[in-house]
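look at this one:
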Amino acid sequence: MAQQPVISVRGEARLEAEPEIAAISVTVQARDRDRRTVLDRLASRNTQVLDLIKGYGEAVEKLESGPASVSPDIRHKERSERVAGYLGRASAHVVIRDFTVLGELMARLADAELVTVAGPWWSLRPDSPVYRQARISAAQDATRRAGEYAQAFGGQLGGLIEAADTGLLTGHADQPVLRRAMPTSAALAAPGGEPPSLDFEPVKQTVTAQVEARFAMVLTGGSDS
């Protein structure tokens, strides 16, 4: 009996979706010749920034404090090292779910003394249903391709033999199954006067998926023996 033909294909899908969250980073600084003064100022400003962010309630999905540091500002002169003062930094990572408050929040943060704001970085949540939709679309694409090949060779598509994420069947799993578009970013330094009005257009996220599949092909109009 002749060996049954097998069709191997790669299914692909590329979806665009509106971002679900936006991330910003906030850095607070303090500088003075006295170490204790730097600590006091840094603690006060950091508390003010965190309180401001928390004031937006459910619009903020996540607020996480980042690294903080207080370091001497050393001035090198000839062979001596002189401490001219101290510099303190504290940071926070903020995830926003309500984009209507994003511009206002960034403007108010940037208007605070010695505060730097960067972002936004747009993204989908890790458990976003868009990823599942992309995988299903890739599987459907693989089935459609295999059916077209079978028809072109004078046969019909048989049952599925094997399916896997790209690279697992060939042994070269060097490509990610899902990819998101690189985010854009903008940075703001604290200005004087009233905070500006900031408008942001969410950046669509691109999700790609690939799957490899093998199908049996049923020959028509002839005998297998």
User: Anything to note?
Assistant: Residues 21-123 form a domain with the Alpha-Beta Plaits fold (CATH 3.30.70.2970). DSSP finds three helices and eight strands in the chain. The chain has two domains: 6-16+129-177+209-219, 21-123. The helical segments are 35-54, 102-110, 129-152.
